[in-house]
Specification:
This protein has about 375 residues and is of the alpha/beta class. The chain contains 13 helices and 13 strands. The structure holds pyridoxal-5'-phosphate.
Length: about 375
Amino acid sequence: MSDQIASASAAGPPPGMAVRLSSNESPFGPAPAALEAIRRAAAEAHLYPDDQATALRERLAAHEGVEAARVAVGTGSAGLLMDAVAHACHGAAAPGVLAFEQAFVVYRLAARNAGAAYLEAPTAGPASGDEDGYARDVGALLDLVDADTRVVLIDNPGNPTGAHLTGEQLTALVAGLPEDVTVVVDEAYHDFATGQRGYATVAELGLAHPRLLVTRTFSKAHGLAGERVGYVLGPPGLVAELDAWRVRFNVTRTAQAAAIASLDEPAHVAACIRGTLEGRARMAHHLRGLGVPVTEGLGNFVTVELGEPAGPVVEAFAGHGVGVRPLAPYGMDEQIRVSVGTPSEVGAFLAAADEVLAEVASRR
Ligand SMILES: Cc1ncc(COP(=O)(O)O)c(C=O)c1O
């Protein structure tokens, strides 16, 4: 698995695809005000950014309804996740990191960098018929907790399966964890999950645990993946400790300015979320109609069961100019993940799928 981890960021379709549905980005782009803010901040590219990101943290605190001491920002939420794991494992003799099977690949990278053992709680099988797959079982994860456990990482919903814990399940999980274990709930995709299938955010649930952190990002619904900015919410003492671990000046001037401007343009974000949900449902419905099992999940992508090695299928889509994501780094050799695109990109993908996946389905 370690070779696969090393190549995780390189794995993917060939570059230069006309339709890029391989990276869970927003196909709708940043808010116009965010682009304008980037242009203005770019003129000050010779100046270091505000190391404390004060304006952004205050804007986020207002947005989330918490005090600014509960917010820290990072180089994408991936940067914060790496720091959170390193911080929680520091000084432990044999630190353990727990997550569900098929969790976001960065968790494994973070555990490796922290010299920690990485343990995965088994999940249910793949999609079949019209049913999503990869359901998560809180009891299976709690069974893995022992005295060495330093961090539990929950992508809710997860990537690459879109699987989620309901509010009830998440409450039970947090209640079952010792107080000295850091719990990180990664809500990168929460915008695409809200109000569906029992999903609830940590804030909606009002969960209390002395070491509970929530990470969020501007890379998905805000369409700012290229700017690399995310944030963490948690108890002030823990947030301050974590903030002391980060690379200094880690969020650029353009990223800080863009994030603030995007928070001020909620109509754009809401339209992107609506467009994503429509595209996700359209993709799942169409693929199921072809006889291909799909996990629609609650992210901005669907996970497709091929029942055969993904490599040739990824190449076949590339032949149609459509980039989709193979999932070998997740140990999922017979699945692909396809991000939601604009309506015309979804149309191009589905037209290609009518050829590529209809053939796959006929071989099943
Ligand atoms: C579950 C999950 N968490 C976090 C991230 C990281 O996002 P970023 O570092 O862009 O904030 C991703 C990116 O795809 C993700 O899938």
